[in-house]
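Please check this:
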Amino acid sequence: MKKAIGLLEFKSIAKGMEATDEMLKAADVELILATPICPGKYISIVTGNVGAVKNAVEVGKSVGDIFTVDEYFIPNVSEKVFPAITATSNPEKIASLGIIETISAVTSILVGDIAVKTSNVELLEIRIARGLGGKGFTIITGEVSAVQSAVKACENNLKETGGIVSSVVIASPAKDFIAKLL
């Protein structure tokens, strides 16, 4: 069982690759994702036991140095986050949608974790910066009141950092729109 997740975003692809390699050498972690994102950034996501992930993030941050844009360490991450990162979530019903747009790729994962821990919602997808100019977004579903509560919790948690660009709740989304999302 995965217990923690570590997320790093770099403003140099080469430095991001070097930091990812050092993270994997320094700690017993599993690499979930390591890829260039636009514009000219690199993201690394690792998972494993709390101590190992914390160590890997610190190593990655140190190696990335001035090229580290953003980093998060989430102990006891919700298991629901992992299928959303790979867009393999499959909810039974979509009563409403919450879309939370974030300033950075790694913040979208933090938002997903906050949403499922604070309200009875499901994660549809955590989109990480591909074709988004370095931004990310998280899509959640559930009953309208639960989605509204989750979006508000995310906004409150990230108010000080300015990590959320915009958020909306769509009650009863059109079937054609849902079909294009999934």
User: Anything to note?
Assistant: The longest strand covers residues 30-37. Helices lie at 13-26, 50-64, 81-85, 105-118, 144-157, 175-181. The CA atoms of residues 126 and 138 lie 4 Å apart. The chain has a mean pLDDT of 89.
